[in-house]
Amino acid sequence: MKQKLKISVLFILVIMLAACGNGGSDGTPAKDGGSSKKPVDSAKTSDEKVKLSIWHNFSGDDLRAREVRGLIEKFEAEHPEVELDAQAIPTDGYRQRVKTVAASKELPDVFFVYAGSQTEEFYKAGLLQPLTSLLDEHPDWKNSFLPGATEIYTYSDNEVYSVPVGLSATSFLYYNKSLFEQYDVKVPETWDELMTAVKTFNDNKITPISLGNKANWFAQSAIFGSLADRVTGTEWFEKAVAQDGATFTDPEFVEALNYFKELSDNKAFQEGANSLDSTQAEQYFIQGNAAMMISGSWTLTNLAASATEEQLAQVEVTTIPSIPSGKGEGNTISGGPGAGFALSFRPEGKVKDLALELIYAISGPEGQKAIAESNSMVMYDVEIDESKVSPLYMKAYNLVKKVKFTPVYDAALSSAGTDAINNGLQEIMYGASSEDVAKKLQDAHARAITE
């Protein structure tokens, strides 16, 4: 008899992610994705079909990506009157692609957006239409989101502009318990224990931490945000984001960068980490070449699709270690409400009605259940079949119920600030100083929020 698990995560979420990432899925483009053509205009063709466009980053072969594409395909099959231009764009290039078309106001009718600063910038630029009427039309759906799920998408006009299709936890510490046992290494709970583990695995020619930072958001979202919060504390970060009583050149932030630099200088990551994508890093880890990997909840669905039962049985999950004398709490995970689908300013009339229906088809109760059962966490009160999720998913799910969430940097920083810290972490891995990176971030973010 199938057991049912009632998802009911009881915690107050702070600033989310990203993209982290989450949200998205890596891998080769799907058949419907990745072309370079611009989004089609909302109009009717000569045979009276309604033209509708949607962009997203569920292009890979992981279970969540398959489910989301399946929901879109089901909508298309149920609406023969629609000519649907659905583009699945690989995660590594998705943010820049959307940013480019937004600048020229050529957004598709429906598109995937990250919670936090990205969606807020689109809202302020007048590029979005609210979804409030859709939520009001489906009160059971509206009332089934978990606390904190839609607040981050609600702005000064008290309208809701998206809803999450996931819960984004970006900084799980995954580890291979067999390698830890083989080399008699303690699972690290403190920074000193982590650095001891790094040295031991390096001495035995095992990569300590698998990292794929080719899409340079990864080190920031998965590692640095959580690490930095342990050093500076969340309150300091919020003040620095607001440029109110704190700046990114403050000593505590430079110290946080120095901790990341210590990992890099001590060869915690495999050679060429800045040239590998996150999918390659996951495979490197699951194949036993690395003892640890710091990554997000998206890894749960990726590994459920690609790893064997024997490989998954070796993986345990915890939080990154605490920092001595740090102002922030240990035993936390960076994250919050995940990304969702938004309605651009373009659609009107019949096109708008169908666009809203498409958003509901993906983000509504059926979509939330399908995504949850693809080994992906959702911010929605839904019953799932426990037999459909992996034991690793259950370990991570049980962990998130016990920990607090802290901010993801790219969900709170300006776009310019995000670019600066993402590039800066890569520069540190190539030998740059923490002070130089801190100054670049401070200059970029301060300039952006005053423009």
Characterization of the model:
The protein has helices spanning 63-78, 91-103, 117-124, 132-137, 139-142, 177-182, 191-203, 217-232, 234-242, 251-265, 278-286, 298-306, 309-313, 349-363, 365-372, 391-400, 409-412, 415-429, 434-450, and strands at residues 4-6, 50-56, 82-88, 110-113, 128-129, 167-169, 172-176, 207-210, 290-295, 315-319, 332-337, 340-344, 383-385, 404-406. The strands form four sheets. It has a five-stranded mixed beta sheet with strand order 3-2-4-12-5. It has a four-stranded mixed beta sheet with strand order 8-9-7-10. Helices cover 44% and strands 14% of the residues. It has 451 residues and is of the alpha/beta class. It has 19 helices and 14 strands. Mean pLDDT is 90; it is low at 1-38 and 40-46.
